[in-house]
Fold this protein.
Amino acid sequence: MTSVDCVRKALEGRQTPWIPVVEFLIDSKIWKAAMPEARDCADFMDQAGYDGVGCGATFQRVAEREDGTYVDEWGVRYLPGPEAVAHPLAGPIATLRDARAWTPPDPDAPHRHATLRDIVSRYKGKRAICFHHRAAFMWSAYLTGLDNLLVALVADTPLAEYVMDKVLEANMQLVRNAIRAGAEVIVLGDDYAHNHGPMMSPAVFTHFIAPRLGRMVEMIHDEGALCIKHSDGNIYPILDAIVSTEPDGLNPIEPVAGMTLTETRRRVGPRLCLVGNIDCGQLLCTGTPEEVHHAVWQAMEEGSGGGPFMLSSSNSIHSSCSPANVLAMLEAAQAFNAR
């Protein structure tokens, strides 16, 4: 059985011969330090023994500013920082008129999936091909400003719905193209929560956001791919609504937000694949390899109890993670699977 088969079995809710290990974003500083000879992040993932390799879409910078910020194809202005994902500062949409005038990035642009096509040509059939993108919420928040979107969901619903629908239409075509280019697992990275709970009420989430998420998940399945829903934070108050959209996996089950593998399994039942939940806030940054080893074995025991499980970090392998601890995490997982 290949890694592709094992990941697919897990996301289909079936028993797997080993617990797959996946990661969806690894900062370049970390993989280069951990494996200087690696050609790129996908090569690191392959050589290190991850069961999946992946990437996202390419969005080019269209304007550079003297203050060091830049604007991308979405029309969003960003401040680069130490992380792989830059911080959004401002978007182009404040009113419904702005939203109607705004044009999303062309999902069919040739450069959009250049990295994906390269990864597919190298690893298709050997590693599960993962593609991370979003549905409707977070790109809409970038375009309007997060606070403004949250206010619009209750005070200016025509604006909120128009923006989210326009974003969703473009993203669905972009993800459809990714699947047809060879992506097998789509990771939807819209974040809905902070450590203490969702950013919106469960009623607002269920009425406005879940149906749009559901449309994306349905299309992914119609195209023959599998879907992992990612959201940081404590999503327990909206978990039932998320599960109702029928993703195949749930990530990252963030421990610092009070999410546990045991409680999440109790709530979601035996079929949904849990994907997580090794703490990248403290443990992978400042913990010892021995502490990492213990956490990995505990997660693999708890996560696989009562349903399918794949091991990953609790968000991503960001720039503050210790390369030694990232390797320790992989070594511990391999030792657990070899028992």
Q: What stands out?
A: The chain has one domain: 3-55+104-337. Residues 3-55+104-337 form a domain with the TIM Barrel fold (CATH 3.20.20.210). Residues 133 and 175 are 7 Å apart (CA to CA).
